[in-house]
Structures are given as structure tokens and as C-alpha cells.
């Protein structure tokens, strides 16, 4: 109530708006500082509030990351938008991370889009590592990639190759974009094998 009374009496409302803005920014900075202390993160360059460290990657991220590794060391924490990322720049550390701690780090990030568009991350690409993921991976390998299934689906590949050759022959007088035709071929084969029909 006193705040509203002060606002009515205040002759400079812009000062009030600036004060509120500064309080919000300070609260955000304090929250980030406390979060960083709790997590014991690797060294990190300064970041911007919304985009994080994306502005520091530039047009050639591999060169920018090399420069950051020289400055901050072989393991760096970057905030890429809203996604926290740890960058490993040495072969020894990469081996330790990928071999020794592979089970701890092998899960996938739970992205907002994947949760809402892909049935709560229940597909093979976005499911978190665990018993469910191992089970759907085993089903995929048995039903799609076993030697028996690969041989059984050879008719679909042969028909799609014949269709690809027909498409190339039909476009003979003009310019042929083989990249798009081969991508369409791969898509048709995958759809016929996995879904039972093609969608082209």
C-alpha cells in the first residue's frame, strides 16, 4: 500500500521503472551466481541473459571453441541459449568422459519440443537412456536390422532403385539434382521398411 502511495506522489515515474528494472536484473544475476556455486561447474566465459554464450561462437565455432579452450582450459561450460553445455577440448578428457563415465552421460536432453511433439520422448531418438530405451533399441534391431530382415526387405530396395533410375531417365533432357533424388530414394526405402508404404 505504501508503494502505491509513493508511486502516486513520485514526480518521476521513469525513476521507479529504472529501479524495478535494476532490482530484476540484480535478482537474475544473484540467482545465476548462486546456481553456478551449487553446481561446481567448469570455467565459463561471461554470458548474456537470454542467448548465453551463443554470441561467442561466431561463424566458425570450431575456431572460437579453440580460442576459448586456450583461455579457459580443456573443459569449458557454455550456456547455448537455454541449454547448458560442457565442451571437452582434449583427447584424454574426451576418452575419460566417453569411456569411464559413459553411463552417467549417455542420456539425451529432455527438450520441450521433443516432449510435446514426440509423445513425451518415447521414441528411440529422444528416449532417456535406461531399460525402456534398451528395449525399443532391441526391437528396432531385431525387426529392422537383423540379417534375416535385411534380406527379406531386399525387394523393397530393388523396387525403389528401379524407381530412382526411372526418375533419372525421365529428367534426362534437363538438369538432374541427384542429391534430392537420392534423399527421396533413402526416405522411400525407410518408409516402406518401417511403415509399410512410401509417402512420395
From TrEMBL:
- Recorded GO MF terms: heme binding; iron ion binding; monooxygenase activity; oxidoreductase activity, acting on paired donors, with incorporation or reduction of molecular oxygen
Q: Which residues cross the membrane?
A: 13-30
**Matches recorded under InterPro entries:** Cyt_P450, Cyt_P450_E_grp-I, Cyt_P450_sf
List the Pfam families hit by this protein, alphabetically.
Answer: p450 (PF00067)
Query: Which Gene3D superfamilies does its entry note?
Result: Cytochrome P450
Keywords (A to Z) from UniProt: Heme, Iron, Membrane, Metal-binding, Oxidoreductase, Transmembrane, Transmembrane helix
| Any coiled-coil regions, as ranges | none
Family named by the database record:
Belongs to the cytochrome P450 family.
Q: What is this protein called?
A: Uncharacterized protein
Source organism per UniProt: Populus deltoides (Eastern poplar)
Amino acid at each position: 500500500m505504501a508503494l502505491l502511495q509513493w508511486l502516486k506522489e513520485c514526480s518521476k515515474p521513469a525513476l521507479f521503472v529504472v529501479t524495478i528494472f535494476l532490482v530484476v536484473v540484480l535478482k537474475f544475476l544473484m540467482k545465476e551466481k548462486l546456481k553456478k556455486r551449487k553446481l561446481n561447474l567448469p570455467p565459463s566465459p561471461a554470458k548474456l541473459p537470454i542467448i548465453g554464450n551463443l554470441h561467442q561462437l561466431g561463424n566458425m565455432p570450431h575456431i572460437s571453441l579453440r580460442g576459448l579452450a586456450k583461455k579457459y582450459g580443456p573443459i569449458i561450460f557454455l550456456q547455448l541459449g537455454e541449454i547448458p553445455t560442457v565442451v571437452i577440448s582434449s583427447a584424454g578428457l574426451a576418452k575419460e568422459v566417453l569411456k569411464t563415465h559413459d553411463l552417467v552421460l549417455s542420456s539425451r536432453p529432455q527438450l520441450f519440443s521433443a516432449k510435446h511433439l514426440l509423445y513425451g520422448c518415447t521414441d528411440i531418438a529422444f528416449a532417456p537412456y535406461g531399460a525402456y530405451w534398451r528395449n525399443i533399441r532391441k526391437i528396432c534391431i531385431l525387426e529392422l536390422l537383423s540379417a534375416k530382415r535385411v534380406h527379406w526387405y531386399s525387394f523393397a530396395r530393388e523396387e525403389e532403385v528401379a524407381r530412382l533410375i526411372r526418375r533419372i531417365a525421365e529428367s534426362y533432357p534437363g538438369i538432374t539434382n541427384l542429391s534430392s533424388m537420392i534423399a527421396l530414394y533413402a526416405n522411400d526405402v525407410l518408409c516402406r521398411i518401417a511403415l509399410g508404404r512410401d509417402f512420395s
